[in-house]
Automatic annotation (TrEMBL):
One of its GO terms (molecular function) is metallocarboxypeptidase activity. Residues 1-17 form the signal peptide. The active site is at 352 (proton donor/acceptor). This is Zinc carboxypeptidase A 1. Its cofactor is Zn(2+). The keyword Metal-binding applies.
């Protein structure tokens, strides 16, 4: 990839005490009409501290996933029945699924391995890893490939976790760039690199950061509702307990401000912004704030189609392509809208990776490599187009 930069911003989620989910279940529900949809929307707004909506209740006749704690299962089922909302158990034991991910550990080589030339941190690409292991691995890669890769810490999250920026390039700083970030939402964070196999990490599920909200017992802001482009124009909540709480002001959060400042520092050379989330298998374009399309939507869509075609060719995984509002729902204050409309980056996309809901945010570790391999084929198409711009 001569004459091209890759910037990867690893915005790892806050490190909270490990929570266990014994007895938690994920229900798939389907609101058949506007009335039942309003029931679910009210439940999300008033009981977001109890029920974890993995899918937004925005469109009738579209399945959505809700994680329910054991103490509230009976109440939830009763509400679905009295409201005539179709429901079924999709994940019977969330803790068992998460425990399977916890069991796989990285292989740490001792000092003798380091002296013999072996890497100190060896990752098997079939497990999820925590922040210290990820940072050590990135540092080792940068040391081994100083002419290709550099790392830096561009700031700290509210709880003091590093926000790591990785730059991959073979040439000077005046060339075109692709900026990829992951970690704003609960996601499967993917680093696609040209010097090493792809690396994917999981985080604790949750849309929000960990900063307390003044005057509320509920913690956190939805980071993908906090960017200053048509902020708070619908598609977010002003209620601190809501999962889509927008923070009370654009760029109220240290994490979104650091992302903003990092992107603006290289915006003049950045041609593409990609933000990697899970889940749903969507390749989304702006805008989130309106059903209207960007002026360059035809070009955005054409590139997305060609990228997804290559992705699908690997394992047959199907993605839906379109603007956020028209494919999913109104979403104001997302990072991709701001990257295009605020920072002036010509191409911006949100990638919602595997799957379509069978596992949701708890994608099994054995899907890490297939997920990365197919996504990297799509990224390569985007990079080739950037080269020709």
């Amino acid at each position: 990839m001569r004459k091209l930069f890759f910037f990867f911003l690893a915005t790892i989620s806050e490190s909270v005490a490990q929570k266990h989910y014994d007895g938690y279940q994920v229900f798939e529900v389907n609101a058949k009409d506007k009335v039942s949809l309003e029931v679910l929307a009210k439940l999300q707004n008033e009981k977001s501290d109890v029920y974890d909506f993995w899918t937004e209740p925005r469109i009738a006749n579209r399945p959505m996933d809700i994680m329910v704690p054991p103490a509230f299962t009976a109440n939830f089922v009763e509400l679905m029945q009295t409201s005539d909302i179709d429901y079924k158990v999709k994940i019977a034991d969330v803790e068992r699924m998460m425990e399977a991910k916890r069991k796989a550990k990285p292989v740490i080589h001792g000092e003798s391995g380091t002296r013999s030339g072996a890497p100190r941190v060896s990752l098997n690409w079939e497990s999820y890893f925590d922040l210290p292991v990820i940072e050590e691995f990135l540092a080792e890669l940068a040391t081994k490939h100083p002419n290709l890769m550099t790392t830096s810490v561009v700031g700290q999250s509210y709880e003091g976790n590093n926000m790591n920026l990785v730059k991959i390039s073979t040439v000077g700083s005046d060339k075109k760039a692709i900026f990829i970030d992951g970690g704003i939402l609960c996601l499967l964070l993917t680093l696609m690199a040209i010097v090493t196999p792809s690396l994917q990490m999981g985080t604790v599920c949750g849309r929000k950061n960990r900063r307390p909200n003044d005057g509320s017992a509920c913690i956190g802001t939805d980071m993908n509702r906090n960017f200053d482009f048509h902020w708070d124009e619908g598609g977010s909540s002003d209620l601190p307990c809501a999962e889509t709480y927008n923070g009370g002001a654009a760029f109220s959060e240290i994490e979104s401000r650091i992302i903003r400042d990092t992107i603006l520092g290289i915006a003049n050379q950045t041609m593409v912004y990609l933000t990697v989330h899970s889940y749903g298998q969507y390749w989304l374009t702006p805008w989130g704030y309106t059903a209207d399309l960007p002026a360059n939507y035809d070009q955005l869509y054409d590139l997305a189609v060609r990228a997804v075609d290559k992705l699908t060719a690997v394992y047959g995984t199907q993605y839906t392509i379109g603007s956020s509002t028209n494919v999913l729902y109104v979403n104001t204050g997302p990072s991709d809208d701001w990257a295009m409309g605020g920072a002036g980056i010509p191409y911006a996309y949100t990638l919602e990776l595997r799957d379509t809901g069978k596992y949701g945010f708890e994608l099994p570790a054995e899907q890490i490599i297939p997920n990365n391999l197919e996504t990297w084929e799509a990224i390569k198409v985007v990079a080739e187009d950037v080269m020709a711009m």
